[in-house]
Design a protein that fits this description.
The complex is a heterotetramer of chains A (659), B (171), C (403) and D (100). Chain A has 659 residues and is mainly alpha-helical. Chain A folds into 3 domains: 399 residues, no CATH class; 56 residues; 34 residues, no CATH class. Chain A has a two-stranded antiparallel ribbon. About 1% of the residues of chain A have low confidence. Chain B has 2 domains: 80 residues, NADH-ubiquinone/plastoquinone oxidoreductase chain 6, subunit NuoJ (Four Helix Bundle (Hemerythrin (Met), subunit A), Up-down Bundle); 44 residues. Chain C has 403 residues and is mainly alpha-helical. Chain C has a domain of 282 residues. In chain C, a hairpin with a 2-residue loop joins β1 and β2. In chain C, α6 packs parallel to α13 and α8 runs antiparallel to α9. The chains are: A mainly alpha (659), B mainly alpha (171), C mainly alpha (403), D mainly alpha (100). Chains in contact: A-B, A-D, B-C, B-D.
């Protein structure tokens, strides 16, 4: 087991890459930086593969495989070790992160080729890989939190990559701050868990949690509260209501970053955490329900916003948010494997979408507004084809990846007791909207007449280094879902099977009975889903190909709705009014001008002034005259003698003096 | 009133008078001479207490080396009668009473502790120099070596201090 | 009266001894000047004093009278007190140092009191001596300073610096002897050299302590401000050094002090390195006890014979008288053995002292004066290290012997 | 036999006189001498105690004190010479560069 025993090598390689690039890269030509960055991630991808191979040979009783490397924090009964753990869930995440991450690295070498701060970009990117791997390999909440914060940091750094652009810098800050709110909840959750179980290591904690009695619906026991707190963290990281606001702005970052961090990996960390602590969630139906509702709401909410956005990346951003909503919906209804499944497929096609969009932007010379594009399909064929594949995938056309994952989510939503139907309905609506705005994006971008002037913008296909990852991802987003395919003709759902040992413990979702029921429902629901997707396609086709004038009229006719949607329900403004303004007032008026300036500085300056004055007064004793000094010495001597010999309490001292 | 007591009082008187004249004399050389008187008187007291070796060393080192140095320096600098400036007001009005107070305190402290001292066995026997040597070179050997080092440092310091810059020491 | 005597016999005896010693020392001093002048004169092939009395033997008396009768001016602007104190100090200290020396082996019984030859017998004798020599710096220094004049001041400065420097070497060079004797007492030092009576001269400290002796003698000469270390009173440079401004009897005091300290040093040399009153011959050779008479009688007879030739009445009277006295003493010694035995110690001791005094004079006749820097570097860079080395060697040898 | 506290009181008096001298003399050299005087007073006390307790430690300490005094004199006089050379005065009240 060479790799399994040295799991740390997998995160270490990107860290090394980051360190080397960050410290030495500034002087190097891009080529060497490429070798370092891509090489390190590629190596860690290979290591991951090897680890998975070895993992597959492990006997089931040795799973999860935990290695304790060194003890990091030891305080009282708390032991937070640098312990890495690998089980089926980790395997999935590991492959997604390293694989997709590697591809995006390759892509970036092409995309960023002309940017300044090249080495900086890759250093950050590798650092992100490191923290992400820590996050998914961690065997306890503390280490996981390290990764959690680390990825947050990297996302901040990369969103603000063009830190000279004010909007970029602000977006970075926004992301960071909003995440802090979530992290606060997360930490509270950790504390509560530690208080409850006396440990933060996954394996023993879950072992303790499993036999516990589950809270009844609507009852808020310790576990429920802990789960909700964790979920707050998740909403922060995974951009769910109400903390989603940072993600659209995060599009200020370079497109590969959007693809890697804000579509494929980091934002799914929330889902991962929920899935990781499913044992706890299984014990609190109310928490589950809340998760489901939040996920569902987010999905529909973001989708509606996505309908009217014109910035290509913004559209993708909102679609990401809504897809994440899907995943939480899945988790909420207890279909964790489905959630993870969608996570994986989504990682493929959403990364593909972003990269393709990046390729488009690259082709348009930095133009992001879809209204200024159009008719690109002939000019950049490969990008177009990959983009189309991804669109089909996300819209849920069989037999592409999206179809299977979304289908299994909807299925489990439909099956779930307490309010399954409503959730299903909303999910379905969301699917419709999704397919609509995705095709809207495709049509606006690639069809119709060119809405840009040929003279300034000369469209050109992207270099190989960008196209190859696109193709690979396209293939993946086609075949990615086939693991679950056999379910339709009575075969097993391999993916669910694979994850079963993880989610089985603590009452897994897919019990055999449910599965039997699922079989019966699977086909009709699938048909419904496909019909929905087609419907969305149809509307988009009708609106943007047949009568291109129509959308404008629609916008006019229902102005209120349109503006509301276009301004994203004024959520940002709302937050600004409710949260930001009071905070600003508090910090400037109270904390800064009162507490800091007047009290603290006042105290410091006062002490300083006092010392000065005291010195001024005392220094007159410094007469520079030896005789005066001598007198002072004499006085001192008298005092000492008086104390030693004539102070009643100092008798023993006096005796000591005499003897 | 036996012989030793008489001798003691004579020597004590010598010492005190010497000290007083050290204060009163206006010329450094005279002060030095009075100090030498004090030292000789103290040496006599040591002899009276049977500390022969200490007495001898007292005269040889203090009288024969240190005070000679003083006289030498006074002669070298040709120091005249000291000028009576009164810059230090504090010393002017508080000096004497304080000094007397200190003296009184010391005397009182001694008087308080004498009973305990008297309790100790008193033998007028002269301290054998051999025993002193034994003590010095066995029990106190490290302090002794330290003092030698100290002297070395002092020599170097004195040379460095006394030589003029960029000029070889005058013979 | 008698009972008073009986009570305070000790004090009385001491007083008598002091008086006697003073008389002897002063006379010796006086004739030491005559001796010095004679010897130096003959070295420089002159006659030296020969006018006053036969062979100028009465010269010292004439000098003394001169000192007493001369006018004694006190220069203007001198620091009176110190100016008078200085010579007194010098003389007093010089004479005190004599008091510590022992002149004979064991006390003799006279009138029912056993009388020890020498005033006091301290068991830190040598230290006391050094203490006194250490103090004797002040005489010179203060004289130089107080007489308010350039030359004396320079002389005083020189002497104080010189004495402080050479005192170290002086003290160090003796340590070897002290180690061998294991005591500070001069008496013990001599007895230690008498540990093996049959060895005679070979038992003396001079052989093991030759280094020490050389250092000691040199340093001692420097301490007594004699040639070649007489810079404080270097005639050619500073008129007469520290006693330029002194006249008549104050000058005489310095003079006597100097010669007395010469005697002290000589006797110290004799005592510490040349076995004090021990005879150089093995104890078994009893016939050597007649050596004093064997010298005295012929010498006395020669003096008589020499006196006859004088025309002057003085010569005719003095020399024969002196000769007869000496002869008689010699005869007496032969006649009464116990007196002879008693005289042995003093005889040898005086003989040795005389020898060293002669060496003093001899050096004065031959050696030139040091330059001041030579003096200092000689003292610090040669004498001190050598004497230290001597200490180390002696100590280690003694240790090896012990094991 | 002389009572020990005679010596002690004598040493106290001498010490006090030393202090007086230290305060009332202006000549640096004299002040230095008064320090020596105080040291001597202390030595006297040492010897007195050593005799009173019939132990030699006191005398050993006296020896140390003397050695230290010698070193002190060497350095101190060097400093005095420097002062005279630089400020042409031995009056402590004229050596007051340290005053504000």
């Amino acid at each position: 087991m060479p790799i399994l025993n040295t799991l740390w090598i997998i995160p270490l390689l990107p860290l090394l890459g980051s360190a080397i690039n960050g410290l030495l890269g500034s002087k190097w030509p891009n080529k060497i930086v490429n070798y370092v960055a891509v090489g390190s991630t590629g190596l860690s991808f290979l290591c991951a593969l090897e680890a998975v191979r070895e993992f597959s040979q492990l006997s089931p009783d040795r799973i999860p495989w935990v290695k304790q490397y060194f003890s990091w924090i030891a305080a009282g009964t708390l032991r937070a070790g640098f312990d890495l753990q690998i089980d089926q869930l980790t395997v999935v995440m590991l492959l997604v992160v390293t694989g997709v991450g590697w591809l995006i690295h390759i892509y970036s070498t092409g995309y960023m080729a002309h940017e300044s701060g090249y080495y900086r970009f890759f250093s950050y990117l590798n650092l992100f890989m490191f923290f992400m791997l820590i996050l998914i390999l961690a065997a306890n909440y503390v280490l996981l939190f390290v990764g959690w914060e680390g990825v947050g940091l990297c996302s901040y750094l990369l969103i603000g990559f063009y830190f000279l652009k004010k909007s970029a810098a602000d977006a970075g800050k926004k992301a960071f701050i909003v995440n802090r709110i979530g992290d606060f909840g997360f930490m509270l959750g950790m504390f509560l868990l530690f208080k409850t179980f006396g440990t933060l290591d996954f394996v023993p904690m879950f072992a303790k949690a499993a036999p516990m009695p589950a809270d009844a619906m609507g009852q808020y026991g310790t576990l429920t509260v802990a789960c909700l707190l964790l979920f707050v963290g998740a909403t922060g990281k995974s951009a769910q209501l109400p903390l989603y606001v940072w993600l659209p702005d995060a599009m200020e970052g370079p497109t590969p970053v959007s693809a890697l961090i804000h579509a494929a990996t980091m934002v799914t960390a929330g889902v991962y955490v929920v899935a990781r602590s499913h044992v706890l969630f299984m014990h609190s139906p109310s928490a589950m329900l809340i998760v489901a509702i939040v996920g569902c709401a987010t999905a529909i909410f973001a989708a509606t916003i996505g309908l009217v956005q014109t910035d290509i990346k913004k559209v993708l951003a909102y679609s990401t948010v809504s897809q994440l909503g899907y995943m939480f919906l899945a988790c909420g209804v207890g279909a964790f494997s489905a959630g993870i499944f969608h996570l994986m497929t989504h990682a493929f096609f959403k990364a593909l979408l972003f990269l393709a969009a990046g390729s488009v932007i690259h082709a348009m010379g930095g133009e992001q507004d879809m209204l200024k594009m159009g008719g690109l399909s002939k000019k950049i064929k490969w990008t177009y084809m990959t983009m189309l594949t991804a669109t089909l995938a996300i819209a849920g056309f069989p037999p592409l990846a999206g179809f299977f994952s979304k289908d299994s989510i909807l299925l489990s939503a439909f099956q779930s007791e307490n309010g399954g139907r409503i959730l299903y309905a909303i999910g379905l609506l969301t699917a419709l909207l999704t397919s609509f705005y995705m095709f809207r994006l495709v049509f606006l971008t690639f069809f119709g007449k060119e809405r840009y002037d040929e003279h300034h913008v000369h469209v050109h296909e992207s270099p190989k280094s960008m196209l190859v990852p696109l193709m690979i991802l396209a293939v993946l987003s086609i075949v990615g879902g086939w693991l679950a395919a056999p379910a339709f003709w009575g075969g097993p759902d391999y993916f669910a099977k694979f994850l079963e040992p993880v989610f089985a413990q603590g009452g897994g979702a897919e019990s055999s009975a449910a599965e039997a029921a699922a079989r019966a429902l699977e086909i009709p629901l699938a048909i419904v889903a496909v019909v929905t997707a087609l419907l969305g396609f149809g509307i988009a086709f009708w609106l943007y190909i047949r009568q291109p004038g129509k959308p404008a009229e629609l916008a006019k006719s229902m102005k209120g709705v349109y503006t509301t949607l276009f301004n994203k329900y004024y959520v940002d403004e709302l937050y600004a009014a409710v949260v930001v303004k009071p905070l600003l007032w508090l910090s400037t008026k109270v904390l800064w001008q009162t507490v800091d300036v007047q009290i603290i500085d006042g105290a410091v300056n006062g002490i300083a002034r006092g010392t000065t004055e005291a010195g001024d007064n005392v220094r007159h004793a410094q007469s520079g005259n030896t005789r005066s000094y001598a007198v002072w010495v004499v006085i001192g001597a008298i005092v000492i003698i008086a104390i030693i010999f004539f102070w009643p309490y100092a008798k023993p001292a006096a005796i000591g003096m005499v003897h | 009133m036996n012989a030793p007591l008489i001798i003691f009082f004579v020597l004590a008187a010598m010492a005190i008078l010497g000290a007083i004249s050290l204060i009163l004399q206006s010329h450094p050389i005279h002060s030095a001479l009075s100090l030498i008187v004090v030292m000789v008187a103290l040496a006599g007291l040591y002899l009276l207490m049977g500390a022969e070796f200490v007495a001898a060393v007292q005269i040889i080192v203090y009288g024969g080396a240190i005070m000679v140095l003083f006289v030498f320096v006074i002669m070298l600098l040709n120091a005249g009668v000291e000028e009576r400036t009164n810059v230090s007001k504090l010393a002017g009005w508080a000096g004497l009473p304080l000094a007397i107070a200190l003296m009184g305190f010391l005397a009182a402290a001694v008087a308080r502790s004498t009973d305990r001292v008297q309790a100790a066995a008193q033998t007028g026997a002269t301290a054998p120099t051999k025993a002193l040597a034994g003590l010095l070179f066995q029990e106190f050997v490290y302090p002794f070596e330290l003092t030698s080092f100290l002297i070395l440092v002092a020599i170097i310091g004195a040379i460095v201090l006394a030589q003029r810059e960029k000029e070889k020491i005058r013979p | 009266m008698t009972d008073f005597l009986a009570q305070h016999a000790e004090i009385l005896i001491t007083l008598v001894k002091i008086a006697l010693l003073l008389f002897i020392v002063l006379t010796v001093n006086a004739y030491l000047t005559w001796f010095e002048r004679k010897v130096v004169a003959h070295m420089q092939s002159r006659w030296g004093p020969h006018r006053v009395g036969p062979h100028g033997l009465l010269q010292p008396l004439a000098d003394g009278a001169k000192f007493l009768l001369k006018e004694d001016p006190t220069p203007a602007g001198v620091d009176k007190f110190t100016y008078f104190l200085a010579p007194l100090m010098a003389l007093a200290l010089a004479l005190t140092s004599i008091a510590i020396l022992p002149f004979g082996p064991d006390p003799i019984r006279l009138f029912g009191h056993d009388i020890y030859l020498g005033i006091v017998d301290l068991n830190i004798g040598i230290l006391a001596l050094f203490a006194i020599t250490a103090l004797s710096v002040y005489g010179v220094a203060l004289a130089g300073w107080s007489s308010n004049s350039k030359y004396p001041l320079l002389g005083g400065l020189r002497s104080s610096a010189q004495m402080v420097s050479y005192e170290l070497a002086l003290t160090m060079s003796v340590v070897g002897v002290l180690l061998m004797a294991g005591s500070f007492s001069l008496r013990d030092i001599i007895n230690a050299q008498a540990a093996h009576p049959e060895r005679g001269i070979l038992g003396w400290n001079i052989f093991p302590q030759i280094l020490g002796f050389l250092c000691f003698f040199t340093a001692a000469i420097a301490e007594t401000n004699r040639v070649p270390f007489d810079l404080p009173e270097a005639e050619s440079e500073l008129v007469a050094g520290f006693h330029t401004e002194y006249a008549s009897f104050k000058f005489a005091m310095f003079f006597i002090a100097e010669y007395t300290s010469m005697i002290t040093v000589s006797s110290l040399c004799a005592i510490m390195f040349f076995g004090g009153w021990l005879s150089p011959f093995p104890a078994s050779w009893t016939f050597t006890h007649y050596l004093p008479s064997a010298i005295l009688i012929p010498f006395g007879l020669w003096v008589i014979w020499d006196g006859i030739h004088y025309e002057t009445i003085f010569g005719r009277v003095i020399l024969p008288g002196l000769g007869t006295v000496l002869t008689v003493i010699g005869v007496v010694l032969v006649a009464f053995p116990f007196i002879n035995e008693f005289i042995q110690g003093p005889f040898w001791l005086l003989g040795k002292i005389l020898f060293f005094l002669f060496v003093y004079v001899w050096m004065r006749g031959t050696l030139p004066r040091f330059r001041y820097d030579q003096l200092m570097s000689f003292g610090w860079k040669l004498l001190l290290p050598v004497s230290l080395a001597n200490v180390v060697i002696t100590a280690s040898v003694i240790l090896l012997r012990a094991h | 036999m002389i009572p020990t506290h005679y010596y002690l009181i004598l040493s106290a008096i001498l010490f006090g006189l030393g202090v007086v001298a230290f305060i009332f003399r202006r000549n640096i050299i004299t002040i230095f001498m008064s320090i020596e005087l105080m040291l001597n007073a202390v030595n006297l006390a040492f010897v007195a105690f050593s005799q009173a307790w019939n132990r030699l430690d006191g005398q050993v300490f006296v020896l140390f004190v003397i050695v230290v005094a010698a070193a002190e004199a060497a350095v101190g006089l060097g400093i005095i010479i420097l002062i005279q050379r630089n400020r042409q005065s031995l009056n402590v009240e004229r050596v007051d560069l340290l005053k504000l």
